[in-house]
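Methods — Computational structure assignment.
A single polypeptide chain was analysed. Its primary sequence is given first, followed by the predicted tertiary structure written as structure tokens.
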Amino acid sequence: MRRSMILLALALAAAARADERQTTPAQKPKPPSTEEVLVAQLSSAKWMPAPALPGMPKGVEVAPIGVDPGSGGPTGYTRLPAGFHLPLHWHSHAEYTVLLSGKASFVVDGKQHELSPGSYVVIPAKARHELTCGTAAECVLLARRAGPTDYNFVNP
């Protein structure tokens, strides 16, 4: 009898844990830390549409790589279609970007720069900037931010 009670108690506890797992909302997987060993390959990037934001044109794709656990600043790839224009905007934190492929025209604080693969850009916090991908090929960028991502589009 005692053995039956123990088995019944164990079965009830297991059922309760199983039920708890089913009713607990699934948590989003934690992104990799950019402060630990991390190797990313552009060829195996998991592309997805960029989050829909007011003012953000459709067509931007992103592939997250990792997040700085201290600042919350993400690192990731961004892909823009040929001829795409990312309108004038600013961010609350600095951005560090490398153009990996394509050609682009980049304007920061009113000054235009022509970018080609390997171009590195530092965009200080709150600096107004915009980017137009050339018409010959898509643009792929690698960006790291000094804090959480935000987009503040400037109305014309």
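Note: The longest helix spans residues 2-23.
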